[in-house]
Amino acid sequence: MNRRTGAVRAALLLVLLVTGSVTGCTPQEEGSGSAGPDAKAGPALAAVDALTVKGRAPRTGYDRDRFGSPWADTDSNGCGTRDDILKRDLEDVKYREGDCEVASGSLSPDPYTGKDVTFVRGRSQVDIDHLVALSDAWQKGAGTWEPSKRIAFANDPLNLLAVDAGPNRGKGDGDTATWLPPDKGYRCAYVARQVAVKKKYGVWVTGAERDAMKRVLTGCPQEKLPTGGSPTAAPGRFHAR
């Protein structure tokens, strides 16, 4: 082999080595830091696929009384559910007597608007919202439940939140497809709570609702699915129509 041939071969070998070093990434390196379509879904987003998808049933027969007396003390702690949620969600809480009936406090901030709202009993701008509205649940399965399950649903802390009365009353019985909190920063947590409640009680979703849930949670794929709350059946001493 002469010098010229040896030099050409050496040059070709160098080109092959350089090319291989550029294109020879391992699969792990290619996927490092990726948030593409193969990225693993977080618990709340993944849980959407576990929900049953069906059309909305008629509202026929719905009445608030079908979910029992409002704010029943289903956890037997001596306080109604409304006061339990006010104590949990408000700051600077003051009581009328004892440590049960909340007289005043501050929602700092309101999760739906991001603004501070003052609570004063009797002239309050704070509501306790059912994240999954009772009427919405009725049209998506609750109409066939045993009364004890409906009572539990209406008083489950997982499904209850102290919020500004204004946007809550504008929400009505809207689901994720028709209403979201004005504060965009709270939407992931809000939708995750709705998914958790519907999964816990077996409330179904419409196709549009499922798509809306996925659309919100895809923007925060690691949002956790909330857990806890009350049992799905109220104690036998409670009754509903």
Number of strands: 5
Enumerate the strands of the largest sheet in spatial order, edge to edge or round the barrel: 1-2-3
Secondary-structure content class: alpha+beta
Order of helices and strands, N to C? HHHHEEEEHHEHHH
Structural shape: globular
**How many helical elements?**
9
Indicate the proportion of strand residues: 5-15%
Helix content: 25-40%
Main sheet, how many strands, which sense, barrel? 3 strands, antiparallel
Low-confidence stretches: 1-39
Rg calculated over all Cα atoms? 27 Å
Mean pLDDT: 87
Distance between the termini: 100 Å
Characteristics:
241 residues; alpha+beta; 3-stranded antiparallel sheet; two-stranded antiparallel ribbon; globular; disordered N terminus
Descriptive notes:
It is a single chain. This protein is of the alpha+beta class and 241 residues long. Helices cover 37% and strands 10% of the residues. The strands form two sheets. It has a three-stranded antiparallel β-sheet, covered by helices on one side. The protein has a two-stranded antiparallel sheet with strand order 4-5. β1 and β2 form a beta hairpin. The chain is globular, with a radius of gyration of 27 Å.
